[in-house]
Amino acid sequence: MLTLRSVSPAVLVLALLAGGPVRAQEDPHLALEGVETPSSLAWVQGENAKTLPVLTGDKRYQGLHDAALKLLAAKDRIAAPSFVGTTVFNFWQDADHVRGVWRRTSLESYRSADPKWETVIDLDALAKAEGKNWIWKGADCRPKTHDRCLVNLSNGGKDAVEVREFDLTTKSFVRDGFVLPESKQTVDWLDADTLILTRDWGAGTTTDSGYGMVVKTLKRAQGLDQAVEVFRGEKADVSARPHVLRDAAGNRVVLIERATDFFHTKTFLLDDAGKATPLPIPERSSIRGMIGGELILTVEEDWSYRFAPNAAPRVFPAGALVAVNPERLLPPKTSDLVISNDCNPCQIFAPGPRQSIDQVAVTDHRVVAVIYDNVRGGLRSFSDRGEWGWDGATLPVIDNAAVSIVATADEGDQLFYSVEGFVTPTQLKLANAFNPKAGADTVKTLPARFDASKLQVEQKEAISKDGTKIPYFLVSQKGAKPDGSAPTLLHAYGGFQLSKLPVYDPLVGKLWLERGGSYAVANIRGGGEFGPAWHEAALKANRQRAYEDYFAVAEDLIATKVTSPRYLGAYGRSNGGLLMGVALTQRPDLWNAVVVESPLLDMIRYTQLPAGASWIGEYGDPAIPAERAWIERYSPYQNLKAGVKYPLAYITTSTKDDRVHPGHARKFAARLGDLGQPYLYYENTDGGHANGADPAANAKRWALHYTYLSRQLMDH
User: Fold this and answer.
1) How far is Cα 416 from Cα 409, in angstroms, rounded to an integer?
2) Which of 233, 553, 621, 683 is most open to solvent, judged by the fewest CB atoms within 10 Å of its CB?
3) Distances, alpha carbon 636 to alpha carbons 518, 521, 641, 667, in Å
4) CB within 8 A of 684, min separation 6: which ones?
5) What is d(CA 332, CA 311) in angstroms, rounded to the nearest whole number?
6) 167 to each of 84, 88, 153, 658, how far by Cα in Å?
7) The pTM is what?
8) Which of 711, 714, 687 is nearest to 701 (CA)?
């Protein structure tokens, strides 16, 4: 890695005077990549000291903060359920439980208006007792017996966690139980006394992306140095990780997933003798569960599979949901090949051109899938009819909704799912996937968090530069004159096949819409709104398409006089933060506010920062000259230039973000300073990639966001 000392002062001065794009070899701000070095933290403190008085001193800040905290810590929120056996668990945070409590109740009690919760782990008390900044990262409980769990604890919100074995009966950590020191790690139960896991085992056991590439088994009472290696990936991989699947029929399958990049995975079947045999399933596929001994997967690329040399191929289109028996995919043990007439592999469902499968869950006897049609959600329960294939039945939802599978029972076919819309509060429903005709009971409904009586929701389309139709949602004030004066916030993501859906967001509603703002969500390419092809259209060399889609929506909002550049703001985080950096550098004329949160911005060095190498499959590799050429054309840090008038940006990140390095945001802000451009920068010293570890921190985060947006877009 280059340091300041390796660059001559003359080169730095010339670069700054020229105001030209920053080249990696002459980067004057490399020192800011030191996450917690004294010089970096001093810079952060100085920036925070400049920004916080501006925003917290605004007369609106305290009201926005109090409203956000009330929403985030409200005790009448829906307590999101999960199942451990037949018991309902929930992790809960409020003003009295800032770090949170992990608690449980019976299903019958949960369905009541006033569930009787029993605290299992009090994270506030644990953090205080141990003097640690523990943040909850979930628990993985032992199958069948449901008596022991592996609890994941993060120091300050990092992805790296410490894992401890916990006894649900005694509600205490197991004396001499499994304890795995802090690492980015994937762990699963092989049996009651054996784990299979990947982690940092020491030198030579992690990938360039910082994830484990060596899978081992660990028995109770063994030290980490006694774990037995069963699989080893390669340093250039993203990771190698175990995946243990079980079904109601008693089948168990142990898989090793070797991710060669973010989207391509080689899958291996691990037998009882520790031998790993490759499975001939598409490298672009996702295994969702197992039922009746068959793996349930979605394929993200066209798959043509021939069961035998003289059999006709079975063809499955990209985006399809498929069932396959893994044993039947292995080479036959004799030379006598029998042509199978049954359905293996078997297509369960194939989406149309404007459809996509968003979520899949497997119960004891059914496969349940959330299916979007033109970004409007539905839910179907599929049953295996043997030689007649799979059949699906719908479960009830609302119109124009976002639908999400919340939890499925460990035993049986019960299913919690939610439905919501931009102005329709979330409903939590309970159904039996085995009997979808019985409908679903609405067991919880979120109280309305903002006044939606004056709001209207429209789905519209913009035309991108290459003629592609880009759908977007607009939530606006009823009866507003189309005179270009509406303060409008445009949000998008556009990457990693993740969709932006019509969700009910109390913070957007209370802190923005109720105060007269409009809100638009763009379904740009790079996302998953229309399946794998929509994502692939903006991969690597085609990345610019996602940005052009976003600009097209902004231009449509302006052309239809919903708003104008004076009143238009942009917001995105993570990959969406990269989108914001591009929006600022390529089209500064379109916006008067840009919130750049937890962003990727230096795309020439992103692979050299923690976790960055794992995203080469999305963006490309700047170490390859041909790929670097098209990355350089949009990389925001390298494309800040003198002589350009940029809107005042609000740039924010977290010191504890070990997924997207805080150096991206720091260096971008510093470069704006070099150019004499105004900006606001705030860095939360906790919180991880989510940038909000608890309700209080999150309330501050959103109050800062909306104070800035109010100043830029609502003030005249």
Assistant:
1) 9
2) 621
3) 27, 22, 10, 11
4) 652, 653, 654, 655, 656, 691, 692, 697, 700, 701
5) 14
6) 13, 16, 16, 30
7) 0.90
8) 687
Is the alpha carbon torsion for 42, 654, 601, 238 positive or negative?
positive
Two structure tokens written together for 582: 């591009």
Please provide the DSSP assignment of 615-650 as one string: GHHHH--TTSHHHHHHHHTT-TGGG--TT-----EE
Q: Where are the domains of the chain?
A: 37-69+459-713, 280-329+341-448
Q: Which amino acids are annotated catalytic?
A: 574, 689
Whether 164 contacts 179, CB under 8 Å: yes
Give the model confidence (pLDDT) of 576-631 as tens digits.
999 999 999 999 999 999 999 999 999 999 999 988 999 999 999 999 999 999 99
Average pLDDT over residues 293-301: 96
**Which long-range CB contacts under 8 A does 312-316 form with residues at least 24 apart?**
314/345, 314/347, 316/345, 316/347, 316/350
Written as six digits, the tokens of 180 are: 């795995």
Contacts of 403 (CB under 8 A, 6+ apart): 358, 370, 377, 378, 379, 397, 417, 418, 419
Position of tokens 């720091």? 666
Among residues 583, 618, 589, 377, the alpha carbon closest in space to that of 490 is found at 583
Q: In angstroms, how far is CA 338 from the centroid of its own chain?
A: 44
pLDDT at site 656: 87
The dihedral built from the CA positions of residue 370, 373, 374 and 377, taken in this order, carries a sign that is negative
What CATH number was assigned to the domain covering residues 280-329+341-448?
A: 2.130.10.120
- Check: CB of residue 228 under 8 Å from CB of residue 242: no
The answer to whether the beta carbons of residues 414 and 430 sit under 8 Å apart is yes
Residues 6 or more apart whose CB falls under 8 angstroms from that of 318 comprise 284, 299, 300, 301, 302, 531, 532, 533
| Residue 545 phi, psi (nearest 5) | -60, -40
For the chain, first and last CA: distance in Å?
Answer: 46
CATH of domain 37-69+459-713: 3.40.50.1820
Instruction: Please say whether the beta carbons of 240 and 213 come within 8 A.
Output: yes
Residue-wise burial string across 635-653, b where 16 or more C-beta atoms lie within 10 A, e elsewhere: bbbbbbeeeeebbbbbbbb
Q: Residue 41: name the closest of 689, 711, 683, 591 by CA.
A: 683
C-alpha 453, offset from chain centre = 32
Return d(Cα 661, Cα 652) in angstroms, integer.
12
